[in-house]
């Protein structure tokens, strides 16, 4: 079987139509809908104390929920406000939360990865941002000399002069920018107007300051999009030569996300147009030299994600694809999700309740899950599929002491169907996702998801 990196994606429209159903994105396993309230502060404290013995490096995530404007497509946990003064008490409570964590955690462990997400992290005005950065530096052991993977999501419309320089001085070396679409009609329809010139200016400044990675996000399937309009957006974006590109499918779930009710069903591209947009985008990106990493993500051949995939060390977590598989992920802020040892935990999603819990001196965890041995095995299987497009059965036996065909006997009929339809190749030693199957990798992973049949959950469609 050939290396996954050598494969080109084959866009098989008939196959995609047959398999395009709803399913998880697998930033975790079990996925977040299966977290439960039986996992609380006590269980999180035990996980933190247990992680000290393992002495794994740390990854830190900070959720900054505030946005000045509401983007109608958005499914993130956010607080829409023009009151920038709300940033000050939020930063103060993040400091409280870090101090509480470190009541139970060895703070000498190095921070290999740091990420600010949202919301809009650059909603914070510079005095508040500086206080947050100083607080992180006070509580944790950050890596010097650009050794860490420290990134932040940037909204160019909410970026004060000097903020990028402040971030770079602190050690940030990656930025991610939401673009979504550059067509003015589409931007108005989703209430997010952002010019190409503004985006290009931010990228140029970041590169001049020495940020070593720029990632851009696009969304296909937004209202009023056409293949021609999206092609123009993609050409303009490729000209900026981002190191990484994400091309997400818009998940229209107005019953779950009320803001999406402002998007008219009749404005959403027909399924055949969405497929054409995706097919043409993939062809354009591959022609421009981008490698399909998986799950909507593309990267340049020299990017760290591409190199990690080649070496078999790529990993996937709540921040997307990562090169830091061996870290414990600590999460701060309302709704943030941590991954510590064999546990996941999510903070309270409501701003005032999250703050009140901290003011009472408690970690603001709302729910979570302790993974079983079987969960850990299936998480490994799903992670390797999403990162490598391949499973080595002999390695599974060495690591977990199982015979693949015996342990997953209940999955074999579904795998045989995938094999018959050309999504996978499988023999006695390996499972390999084919070029036709790579776009449907979520569907391949769903075969191994033991939770899917037992709970009705609203997921986005695979394509």
From TrEMBL:
Its EC number is 1.3.98.3. Keywords: Oxidoreductase. The keyword Oxidoreductase applies. This is Oxygen-independent coproporphyrinogen III oxidase. It comes from Acidithiobacillus montserratensis. The gene is hemN.
């Amino acid at each position: 079987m050939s290396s996954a990196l050598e494969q080109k994606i084959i866009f098989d429209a008939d196959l995609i139509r047959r398999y395009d159903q709803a399913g998880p994105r697998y930033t975790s396993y079990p996925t977040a809908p299966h977290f439960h309230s039986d996992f609380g502060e006590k269980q999180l404290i035990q996980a933190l104390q247990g992680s000290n013995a393992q002495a794994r490096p740390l990854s830190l995530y900070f959720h900054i929920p505030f946005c000045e404007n509401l983007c109608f497509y958005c499914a993130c946990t956010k607080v829409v406000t023009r009151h920038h003064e709300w940033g000050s008490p939020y930063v103060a409570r993040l400091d409280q939360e870090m101090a509480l964590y470190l009541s139970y955690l060895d703070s000498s462990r190095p921070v290999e990865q740091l990420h600010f997400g949202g919301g809009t992290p650059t909603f914070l005005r510079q005095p508040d941002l500086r206080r947050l950065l100083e607080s992180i530096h006070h509580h944790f052991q950050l890596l010097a000399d650009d050794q860490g993977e420290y990134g932040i999501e940037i909204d160019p419309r909410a970026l004060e002069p000097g903020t990028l320089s402040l971030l770079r001085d602190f050690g940030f070396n990656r930025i991610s920018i939401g673009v979504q679409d550059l067509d003015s009609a589409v931007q108005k329809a989703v209430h997010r107007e952002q010019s190409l010139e503004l985006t290009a200016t931010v990228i140029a400044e970041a590169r001049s300051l020495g940020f070593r990675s720029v990632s851009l996000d696009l969304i296909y399937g937004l209202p009023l999009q056409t293949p021609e309009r999206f092609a123009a957006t993609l050409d303009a974006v490729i000209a900026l030569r981002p190191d990484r590109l994400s091309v997400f499918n818009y998940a229209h779930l107005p019953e779950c996300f009320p803001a999406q009710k402002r998007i008219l069903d009749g404005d959403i591209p027909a399924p055949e147009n969405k497929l054409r947009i995706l097919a043409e985008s993939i062809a354009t990106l591959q022609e421009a030299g981008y490698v399909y990493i998986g799950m909507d993500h593309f990267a340049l051949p020299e990017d760290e994600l591409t190199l990690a995939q080649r070496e078999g060390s790529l990993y996937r977590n709540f921040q997307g694809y990562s090169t830091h598989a061996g870290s414990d992920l600590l999460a701060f802020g309302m709704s943030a999700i941590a991954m510590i040892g064999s546990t996941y935990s999510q903070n309270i999603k409501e701003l005032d309740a999250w703050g009140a819990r901290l003011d009472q001196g408690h970690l603001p965890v709302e729910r979570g899950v302790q993974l079983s041995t079987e969960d850990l095995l299936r998480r490994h299987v799903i992670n390797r599929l999403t990162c490598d497009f391949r499973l080595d059965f002999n390695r599974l036996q060495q690591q977990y002491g199982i015979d693949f065909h015996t342990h997953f006997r209940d999955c074999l009929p579904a795998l045989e169907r995938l094999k018959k339809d050309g999504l996978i190749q499988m023999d006695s030693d390996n499972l390999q996702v084919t070029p036709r199957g790579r776009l449907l990798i979520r569907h391949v992973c769903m075969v191994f998801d033991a939770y899917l049949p037992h709970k009705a959950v609203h997921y986005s469609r695979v394509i």
